[in-house]
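Let's sit down with a protein and look at its sequence and fold side by side. Which protein we use is up to you, so please pick one and set it down. Label the sequence line and the structure token line clearly, so we can match residues to local backbone shapes. Go ahead whenever you are ready, and we will take it from there:

***
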Amino acid sequence: MATPLPVDVVLRPADLTESQVLDRTVVVFDVLRATTTMAAALAAGVREIRIFPDKTAAMNAAKNFDQPKLLCGEENCLPPPGFDLGNSPRAFAQAHAGQTLFMSTTNGCKAILAAQNAARLCIGALVNASAACRIAIKARLPITLLCAGTNGQLAMEDLLGAGAVLDEMDRQSGFAAESDRVAIALNLFRGSRSNLSRVLRESIGGKNVIAAGLEPDIDFAARLDSLDVAGICHGDPPTVRIASAMPK
């Protein structure tokens, strides 16, 4: 059996250090909702998802792109003016196959940008926890599970996503925890697994989604391992593609 990989959990992008990024695999979680939406988009056949720090950067980049495209993102949970889609994972269907998304969100996209110097950068959520785990351990590098948080604060739903990947990793290969945050994430997930929708609703992020009139997104985000798709991100701007389409 292979030696268990070192794993750490980072609670917010502001806590991320260079040593937790360089020469490591980083998996980013924004369960409500950006990384869940990215997984849904890839599962629907979206060609790639280009990541931007704000709506202006996304809109400017999209202006010069002459292939099928969509502007996708949110401000305060809702689509910015001029965007084609918000940040709802329920919005994606086979009709979007082959399109390129230009995406900007409040928390998830910024977390991806914070980790873009990682040796391998993956997208994780509850909906694709097992697939994200498989692609993360495949590189045989130390792993950082990065929670996007909400407006600079810890988000419980992201810690749940990290715990779901840790639970799968424990079954697949084991791991060597680098901090107590790993046990906290794993125990939170294992204690919540039978009630994920309820726990997500009780989180601050869940309450924000409900207040925006998007409560069905919570049920979508709580569907553990409903999507067998892993996204890997590289390039500048960071671009998420389905794992099988990425260069080795």
Notes: The chain has one domain: 5-241. The mean pLDDT is 95. The longest helix spans residues 156-172. DSSP finds nine helices and ten strands in the chain.
